[in-house]
């Protein structure tokens, strides 16, 4: 019963997604994003966003502290590398489990409230984790420096079976080094698995209950459902997705720092999900990819690079353009992101997926108005 | 045998005694109507049955088991379903999903994670839902999103959501409020047709509905049951007439703005059959905005366009002008 009970549309959706994910290096080539470091980020933050969407898009609980689980996943994975083996499988499993446990704890407390109070509770917990990682928990997190590999780490299993070499060992999948394209394809396969699980959840009775909770929690209670454990399960699943993403960050670059848990990182996944389209399966991944892509481009620009790109223009125009655009690149990239985000929320509340659906709708049902649009919207989901 | 036994229930909101030593006994398999003027405490009483409110004192025994202090979902699982005064449905989901969800609650219980197989594999649940949709006449609209339904259809949907669970006790809080005459008749017809074995408690302002459905009527006024009995007995009961038409009763709902607050408030009239059916409906459909002046009895003005109609109707009903 892996595929048999999915509808034809869902099978096609999954097939299309798998092909697109595997062909990502090709697809990213025209926009110059086809290098493994960036592709890995697309896959990893895609996973993060899929998981976040299960809680926010499906269940309607807006967490502002999801980066905490990302951080916990990273720390757990790095500890596995340090203590047991540089093989990535145990690290990933451990990262997912630890963040799942952590999510159970935080979710249990935060879900006593809903709406804005829930959001604030999660934010508070994440900031607490961040501060703890910096201070009290230094023995576990190595404080400001961040948790790193060391020559003299225990690596129990590795020392038993693998010959030790000079220098820091690298993460590997049974000997295959997890950097460059192998690293990307490892993340990519997990992204596909993550997507498949999310698809199954969304189409299952459980997913239906989550959507019902989002729509009308009161009705759910008077309909005989105990909504709290449903929401908690969604919270834990979504925390585990974040933990998976966090441990993959450690797989591709084995160090973990507290800044990964900062509120800006929590905010980023909210932006990704809303930008792409909360509640849709593909939207959040799209949002994650776009944000990571543009962050990569814009944050590397500075005024002199800008001036260079516009050097074909007369001086005064060049100066004017640099003056206008300058504040939005480099450090100011988040300013640009903020503006784009506002525009999306105001004009396309359903995110990019709604935009695509509208285009599709116009294309298919020109003149049919709303009806055509709704059909298209459903198709897009 | 009494399926629901309510004894000496009291409930106060601040200084306001919403329920005052309410006693009620509902026989299994009957339709029990609760009538009474606006603000009498009818909805509050239902809230005490489903776990939304806990009475200050008193007991509510359903099927030999106390319902007090039990969570709403547990109460539902023991077989109590409720249609709310303002429809509580899943507005973002399709009609079919709206009905399948309560069916899942019935089949799978209050919490079960079945996150792997698709909804499509649960044909039995879908069949349950489709059957009820057929009964209430919504099967054609099963793929529509619930928010786009008309008011009457939303209520019908909520009823389907309750019926699909085949509850032992069905609570209906004004199931025909806001419906046209035709829709009201449909609803009455529906309630007489389906779930005939289900014990029902119906709160209703429309006397036509009450007298068509009820086996037993309890009259609630200012938090107290002032009369109870067979419909024939209630009709002629002078105490009941007094409660509705008597001097101190507010004839328009003195809602959120406070009991004696002045200004525009949502409102509607409640009158016994024959008294001013016309006026009641007129206000209901057109206005909703009644003015209720402090200390005046009962100062009413319809919305400007309808003002003459309202005045005329009121005059016919009471022999005096509505707007003093
Ligand atoms: N949660 C609450 N808090 C404070 N006061 C309340 C609350 N619920 C109801 N009341 C008050 O209790 C009284 C009874 O209200 P209730 O809603 O039970 O009346 P009702 O008989 O259902 O009236 P209607 O026919 O208008 O629905 C009203 O005066 C109302 O304002
Ligand atoms: Mg009421």
Relevant terms:
heterodimer; A: 381 residues; mainly alpha; 2 domains; two-stranded antiparallel sheet; 19 helices; disordered C terminus; B: 324 residues; alpha/beta; Rossmann fold; 6-stranded mixed beta sheet; 4-stranded antiparallel beta sheet; 11 helices; 35% helix; binds adenosine-5'-triphosphate; binds magnesium ion
CATH hierarchy, class of the largest domain in chain B: Alpha Beta
- Biggest sheet of chain A, in brief? 2 strands, antiparallel
Ligand inventory reads: adenosine-5'-triphosphate, magnesium ion
**Series of H and E elements of chain A:** HHHHHHHEHEEHHHHEHHHHHHH
Residue-averaged pLDDT of chain A: 88
Strand order of the largest sheet of chain A: 1-4
The proportion of residues forming helix of chain B, as a percent range, comes to 25-40%
Basic shape of chain B: globular
Work out the radius of gyration of chain A: 22 Å
Low-confidence stretches of chain B: 245-309
Distance between the termini of chain B: 51 Å
The largest beta-sheet of chain B arranges its strands as 6-7-8-3-9-10
Please identify the structural class of chain B as seen in this structure. alpha/beta
Oligomer: heterodimer
Helix proportion of residues of chain A, in percent?
Answer: over 70%
Principal-axes geometry of chain A comes out as: globular
User: How many structural domains can be distinguished in the coordinates of chain A?
Assistant: 2
Tell me what the structure shows:
The complex is a heterodimer of chains A (381) and B (324). With 381 residues, chain A is mainly α. Chain A has 19 helices and four strands. Chain A is globular. Chain B is built from eleven helices and twelve strands. By secondary structure, chain B is α/β, with parallel strands linked by helices. In chain B, strand 9 and strand 10 form a beta hairpin. The termini of chain B are far apart. In chain B, helix 3 packs across helix 4, helix 3 runs parallel beside helix 5 and helix 4 packs across helix 5. At the A-B interface, helix 9, helix 10, helix 11 and helix 12 of A face helix 2 and helix 3 of B. Bound molecules: adenosine-5'-triphosphate and magnesium ion. The site of magnesium ion has 4 residues of chain B, from helix 1.
């Amino acid at each position: 019963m892996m595929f048999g009970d999915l509808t034809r549309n869902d099978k096609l959706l999954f097939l299309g997604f798998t092909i697109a994910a595997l062909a990502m290096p090709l697809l990213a080539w025209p926009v110059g994003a086809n290098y493994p470091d960036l592709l890995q980020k697309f896959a990893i933050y895609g996973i993060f966003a899929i998981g976040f969407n299960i809680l926010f898009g499906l269940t309607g609980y807006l967490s502002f502290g999801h980066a905490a689980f990302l951080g916990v996943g990273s720390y757990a994975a790095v500890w596995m590398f340090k203590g047991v083996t540089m093989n990535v499988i145990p690290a990933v499993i451990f990262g997912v489990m630890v963040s799942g446990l952590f999510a159970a704890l935080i979710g249990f407390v935060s879900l006593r409230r809903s709406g804005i109070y829930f959001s604030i509770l999660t934010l508070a917990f994440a900031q607490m984790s961040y501060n703890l990682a910096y201070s009290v928990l230094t023995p576990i997190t190595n404080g400001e420096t961040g948790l790193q590999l060391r020559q003299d780490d225990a690596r129990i299993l590795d020392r038993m079976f693998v010959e030790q070499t000079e220098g820091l060992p690298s993460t590997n999948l049974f000997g295959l080094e997890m950097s460059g394209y192998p690293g990307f394809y490892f993340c990519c396969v997990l992204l596909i698995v993550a997507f498949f699980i999310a698809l199954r959840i969304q189409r299952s009775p459980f997913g239906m209950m989550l959507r019902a909770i989002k729509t009308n929690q009161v009705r759910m209670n008077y309909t005989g459902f105990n909504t709290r454990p449903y929401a908690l399960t969604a919270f834990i699943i979504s925390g585990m997705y974040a933990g998976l993403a966090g441990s993959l960050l450690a797989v591709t670059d084995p160090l973990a720092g507290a800044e990964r848990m900062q509120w800006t990182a929590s905010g980023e996944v909210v932006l990704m999900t809303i930008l792409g389209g909360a509640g849709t399966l593909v939207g959040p991944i799209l949002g994650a990819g776009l944000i990571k892509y543009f962050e990569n481009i814009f944050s590397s620009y500075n005024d002199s690079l800008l001036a260079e790109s516009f050097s074909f223009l007369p001086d005064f125009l060049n100066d004017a353009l640099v003056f206008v655009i300058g504040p939005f690149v480099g450090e100011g990239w988040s300013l640009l992101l903020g503006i784009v985000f506002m525009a999306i929320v105001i004009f396309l509340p359903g995110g990019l997926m709604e935009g695509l659906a509208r285009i599709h709708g116009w294309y298919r049902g020109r003149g049919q108005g709303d009806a055509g649009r709704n059909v298209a919207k459903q198709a897009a989901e | 045998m009494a399926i629901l036994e309510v004894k000496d229930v009291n409930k106060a909101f601040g200084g306001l005694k919403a329920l005052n030593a309410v006693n009620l006994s509902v026989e299994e398999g009957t339709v029990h109507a609760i009538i009474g003027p606006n603000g009498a405490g009818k909805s509050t009483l239902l809230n005490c049955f489903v776990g939304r409110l806990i009475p200050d004192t008193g007991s509510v025994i359903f099927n030999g088991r106390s319902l007090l202090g039990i969570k709403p979902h547990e109460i539902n699982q023991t077989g109590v379903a409720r249609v709310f005064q303002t429809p509580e449905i899943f507005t973002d989901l399709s009609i079919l999903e709206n009905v399948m969800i309560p069916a899942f609650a019935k089949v799978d219980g209050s919490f079960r994670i079945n996150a792997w197989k698709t909804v499509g594999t649960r044909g039995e649940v879908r069949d349950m839902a489709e059957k009820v949709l057929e009964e209430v006449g919504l099967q054609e609209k099963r793929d529509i999103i619930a928010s786009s339904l008309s008011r009457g259809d939303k209520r019908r949907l909520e009823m389907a959501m309750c019926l699909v669970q085949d509850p032992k006790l069905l609570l209906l809080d004004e199931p025909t409020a806001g419906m046209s005459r035709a829709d009201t008749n449909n609803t009455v017809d529906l309630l007489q047709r389906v779930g005939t074995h289900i014990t029902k408690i119906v709160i209703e302002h429309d006397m036509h509905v009450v007298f068509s459905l009820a086996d037993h009527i309890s009259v609630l006024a200012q938090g107290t049951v002032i009369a109870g009995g067979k419909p024939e007995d209630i009709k002629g009961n002078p105490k009941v007439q007094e409660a509705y038409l008597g001097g101190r009763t507010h004839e328009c709902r003195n809602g959120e703005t406070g009991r004696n607050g002045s200004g525009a408030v949502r409102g509607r009239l409640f009158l016994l059959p024959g008294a001013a059916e016309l006026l009641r409906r007129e206000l209901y459909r057109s206005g909703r905005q009644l003015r209720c002046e402090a200390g005046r009895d009962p100062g009413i003005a319809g919305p400007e366009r309808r003002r003459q109609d309202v005045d005329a109707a009121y005059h016919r009903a009471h022999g005096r002008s509505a707007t003093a």
